[in-house]
From TrEMBL:
This is CaiB/BaiF CoA-transferase family protein. Keywords: Transferase. The keyword Transferase applies. SUPFAM superfamilies: CoA-transferase family III (CaiB/BaiF). It comes from the Bacteria. InterPro entries: CoA-transferase_III_domain (IPR050483), CoA-Trfase_fam_III (IPR003673), CoA-Trfase_III_dom3_sf (IPR044855), CoA-Trfase_III_dom_1_sf (IPR023606).
Length: 402
C-alpha cells in the first residue's frame, strides 16, 4: 500500500458490507486512494461473488464493485473475529456497513463500542429504512426502496405495470450519499477531532431524486403518473423510432433549441407558432409535437437522424447497447473502457473491458490498481500488519475465524 496515490490517500476504511450499497461506497473511496479493507465471511464471502456469474467462481460484477480493495476473511460472529475487527477499527478513519439495524449491536460491535475503540471514527450505516423510525427493522433491498421511495410508480408506461430500471439504482445512489456523508464528517473532524455516525436509508436515497413529487402533490394535489419515455412537464423530450427500427432520444425543450429542431425536421412553421413559444405551450400540445418529430425520424435511419440533429446542435443520442459502448471512441478517449487481465477460471485468463473511474481529476486522479480480489486474498497480510504471527493465523484459520 505504500505506493498509493490519490486525493484520499492516507484514509483507511473498514468495509463490513455485502452486495451493492456499502461496497459501491467503498469502491469510490478506494478508486481515489483510500485503503479499503473488505471483511468477508470465511466460507463463501460476499454473495455478490456469485451474482451474474457466467463462468468460474467470482463474477465480473464483484470484480467491478470491489476493485482496489483488500479482502480479509473474518467471522464477526466469533468472539476472536470481533476482537480482530476492533483492533482494525482502532486504526481506521471510516467503517462502512449495510446490515439490518441492530446486527452490529448483537455482535457487540455497535456504534458505542466502535467509538470507544476509536473516538474519531466515522461510522457510515446503510439500511433499507434507516436506523430509526417504525420501519427500521424491516428488511429492504434496492428494488423495494425504489417502490417505497416513489420511483417505481413513475417508471414505465401508464397502461402497463410499474417497471424497474435494469441496474441496482437505489444501492448505487445510497453509496454516493455514503461517500458524501463520510467526506463531510471527515472535514468536520479536522476541526473538532470527533467522529460521527452517518445514517443512510435506501428509500431516502431514492426519494431524494424525486424532484418536486411531494411538493406538487401537497400544494396542488397533482399526482404524477407513469408517462413512458417522455419527460412530464417538459416538451419535446422523448424517444423516437427511426426507419431502421432503432430508437433515438431527442431533447428539444429549450426555447431556442426547439426553434432549431423545427428547422431540422423541416417544420419551421412550428417554430414560429405562438402557441409553442415557451415550454408551457409546448407541454399543452406535446402530442402534436411528438407526432411531427416521430414522422420525421420514421423516414430516416438512426445514424442520419443523429447526424442532422448534431449539425443543428440539438441534444440527442442513440440508445446504446453494451456492444456499442465497447466500440465507442468517446468512451475510449475519456478512459471509460479500462482493459484489465482477469482470471475467469483456472487456466482461462482474459483481457476484459471494465468501467473507468468517475469523476476525473486533472491532478492526482484515481486509478484501478487491481480488480476485486479473490476471497481472503489479503487476510495474511492484513493480520500480519496487526502483529498476528503466522502460527496464530493458522490457528485462527483452523477455528474458522478467518
Amino acid at each position: 500500500m505504500g505506493d498509493t496515490t490519490g486525493p484520499l490517500a492516507g484514509i483507511r476504511v473498514l468495509e463490513l458490507g455485502n452486495f451493492i450499497a456499502a461496497p459501491s461506497a467503498g469502491r469510490l473511496m478506494a478508486d481515489f486512494g483510500a485503503e479499503v479493507i473488505k471483511v468477508e465471511r470465511p466460507r463463501g464471502g460476499d454473495e455478490l461473488r456469485r451474482w451474474r456469474l457466467h463462468e468460474g467462481d467470482t463474477s465480473l460484477l464483484f470484480r467491478t464493485m470491489n476493485r482496489n480493495k483488500r479482502s480479509l476473511t473474518l467471522d464477526l460472529r466469533h468472539p476472536r473475529g470481533r476482537a480482530l475487527a476492533l483492533d482494525l477499527v482502532e486504526d481506521c478513519d471510516i467503517v462502512l456497513e449495510n446490515f439490518r439495524p441492530g446486527t452490529l449491536e448483537r455482535w457487540s460491535l455497535g456504534a458505542d463500542r466502535l467509538r470507544a475503540a476509536n473516538p474519531g471514527l466515522i461510522l457510515v450505516r446503510i439500511s433499507g429504512y434507516g436506523q430509526t423510525g417504525p420501519y427500521r427493522d424491516r428488511p429492504g433491498f434496492g428494488g423495494v426502496a425504489e417502490a417505497v421511495g416513489g420511483l417505481r410508480h413513475l417508471t414505465g408506461f401508464p397502461d402497463r405495470p410499474p417497471t424497474r430500471v435494469g441496474i441496482s439504482l437505489a444501492d448505487s445512489v445510497a453509496g454516493l450519499y455514503a461517500v458524501i456523508g463520510a467526506l463531510a464528517a471527515l472535514h468536520r473532524r479536522r476541526a473538532t477531532g470527533r467522529g460521527d455516525e452517518v445514517d443512510i436509508a435506501l428509500y431516502e436515497a431514492v426519494y431524494s431524486l424525486m424532484e418536486s413529487l411531494t411538493p406538487d402533490y401537497d400544494a396542488f394535489r397533482v399526482e404524477r403518473e407513469r408517462t413512458g419515455s417522455s419527460l412530464p412537464g417538459v416538451a419535446p423530450s422523448n424517444t423516437y423510432r427511426c426507419a431502421d427500427g432503432r430508437y433515438v432520444v431527442i431533447a428539444g425543450n429549450g426555447d431556442s433549441i426547439f426553434r432549431r429542431l423545427t428547422a431540422v425536421i423541416d417544420r419551421p412553421e412550428l417554430g414560429e407558432d405562438p402557441r409553442l413559444a415557451d415550454n408551457a405551450g409546448r407541454v399543452r400540445h406535446v402530442d402534436e409535437l411528438d407526432a411531427a418529430i416521430a414522422a420525421w425520424t420514421a423516414g430516416l435511419p438512426h445514424e442520419e437522424v443523429l447526424r442532422r440533429l448534431d449539425e443543428g446542435q440539438i441534444p440527442s443520442g442513440p440508445i446504446y447497447t453494451a456492444a456499442e459502448i465497447s466500440k465507442d471512441p468517446h468512451y475510449a478517449a475519456r478512459g471509460m473502457l479500462e482493459r484489465h487481465p482477469v482470471t475467469i477460471a483456472p487456466g482461462d485468463r482474459r483481457e476484459v473491458a471494465f468501467p473507468g473511474i468517475v469523476p476525473r481529476f486533472r491532478e492526482d486522479p484515481g486509478r484501478t490498481r487491481w480488480l476485486g480480489p479473490d476471497l481472503g486474498e489479503h487476510t495474511d497480510a492484513v493480520l500480519a500488519e496487526l502483529g498476528v504471527d503466522a502460527d496464530r493465523i493458522e490457528e485462527l484459520r483452523q477455528l474458522g475465524v478467518v
